[in-house]
Amino acid sequence: MNGRSDKLHTALLTLLRSGLWERELDNSSCFPLSEDDWEMLFTMSRQQTVTGIVFQGLQYLPDGMFPPETLLIRWTAEVDAIERRNRKMNRVLSELYTLFHSKGLNPVLQKGQGVAQFYPKPLLRECGDIDLYFNNREAQEEAIACVRSCGITVKKMPDESSCYLWKGIEVEHHVRLFDLYTPFLKRYTDGLESEKGFEFIMLQDLELFAMIPTPFLNLLLLDLHILKHVLGWGIGLRQLCDMACACYQLYREIDSEEMRTTCRKLGLGRWNPLLHIFLKEHLGLPEHSLP
Questions:
Q1: What are the residues facing 125 on neighbouring strands?
Q2: I need a labelling partner for 163 at 20 to 30 A (CA). Which of 25, 140, 141, 193 fits?
Q3: How far lies 22's CA from each of 16, 28, 203, 228, in Å?
Q4: What is the 3-state secondary structure (H, E, C) of 115-149?
């Protein structure tokens, strides 16, 4: 059983790397797979929420090594559903930004659809919820009042964030950019936030400019978010793919020595080498792209 498990993990990561970077397979030793193995690999892809990216990797398989036709049809339908949900989420984002802009509010888009822009094909990244950051209490309260005026029920969370459903999409409003609660560290990151700031990007498939963290803050945000999940509920491959794609797209805009110093101050000095090893060895991120 261990041999089969190792083979399937190797196959999953091989296809994931090909789909992530849109390149030929770097390891074909585990192929071809049996029908049962393909079913298990499909299940693993769904569990790790990388179904669309792994599907993209299938196109690089040699002839005769593809999944059975019945599974390929189901896989195609699953990817179509992922793309449709992404388009729905983009429409919801557009509606929310239109609403907030009409009130003079300009929320920061955290992770999610903002990070999807770093992927070669953003619609293949499985989306979760919408995370919006309001950097002062007044803006946070005004945004909630704005949502409630539309007849939406808003729930307050223990960490002071707020959440609600907008046309079936879960939306969260956050009062802090980083998941840090130690006063000293929060003062430090507040200073970084003021110094580095935010920037506008055009979301693909939408005529919508959204504000996101600048590259330095974005990579730091993703780094801390992954660590939070590792220490808590656990982490999936999608979050690690987010980090890999963000590194690949943003590393030229990062001062590596400044990033190293900042990570040490935040207590990430021993964690980041582990993260970087995974990104390089298992997801195929080029070493020169590390921040």
A1: none
A2: 193
A3: 9, 16, 21, 29
A4: HHCCCCCHHHCCCCCEEEECCCHHHHHHHHHHHHC
Average pLDDT of every residue of the chain: 93
d(CA 205, CA 196): 28
Secondary structure class of 290 (helix, strand, coil)? coil
Looking at residue 30, the DSSP 8-state letter turns out to be T
The answer to whether the pTM exceeds 0.85 is yes
Confidence of residue 206 (pLDDT cuts 50, 70, 90): low
Structure tokens at 162: 């707020």
DSSP state of 107: P
22: which residues sit within 8 A by CB, 6+ positions away? 56, 120
Residues near 265 by beta carbon (within 8 Å), at least 6 away in sequence = 185, 188
Cα–Cα distance, 217 to 200 (Å, whole number) = 14
Write out pLDDT tens, residues 275-285.
999 999 999 99
- Asked if residue 123 lies in contact with residue 83, where contact means CB atoms within 8 angstroms, the answer is yes
Nearest Cα residue to 222 out of 196, 199, 237, 240: 240
